[in-house]
Specification:
about 150 residues, mainly alpha, Cytochrome Bc1 Complex, Chain D, domain 2, 2 domains, 6 helices
């Protein structure tokens, strides 16, 4: 009824029903270099969704046409700034004249007032962590791939 499991080079005797959960737990404890890149990406996307839910969701939606205090972010990457129909953008965003690519989004999310002075993103002041912004961008890009 028992079997052996190697965790961190140590042999452990476990019951079969616990083996699967221990293997999952061991995978979490392994360094990132030992994990599959797809698993890391999925985790980053999930963390990015958490960032979106805690920082962005009050004003923005990821559903096409669901404008709130801010425009929807459905397919934001590759869209011209200020281009969502039926949304009242600030004149600064309307006249920005750029396309939301990864670099523009990263810069804007980091510090909207510096990226586009006069934008209407108050009271949002920016997200200083580059890692957090990267995860948020992965989440936004994942929405395009899943639709």
């Amino acid at each position: 009824m028992s079997s052996w499991l190697m965790v961190a080079g140590v042999k452990h005797r476990v019951r079969r029903r616990w083996r699967a959960s221990l293997v999952g737990t061991a995978a979490i404890l392994l360094p990132p270099s030992a994990m599959c890149q797809d698993s890391i990406r999925r985790l980053d996307v999930e963390l990015g969704e958490q960032v979106f839910n805690s920082v962005c969701r009050t004003c923005h939606s990821t559903k096409n046409g669901d404008n709130r205090l801010g425009p929807h972010l459905h397919n934001i990457v590759g869209r011209k700034a200020g281009a969502v129909a039926n949304f009242g953008y600030s004149s600064a965003i309307k006249g920005a004249g750029f396309v939301w690519d990864e670099k523009a989004l990263d810069r804007f999310i980091a510090n909207p007032d510096e990226a586009v002075p006069g934008n209407g993103m108050k009271p949002y002041g920016g997200l200083p962590s580059a890692d957090t912004r990267a995860r948020l961008l992965l989440f936004l890009q994942s929405l395009e791939q899943n639709q």
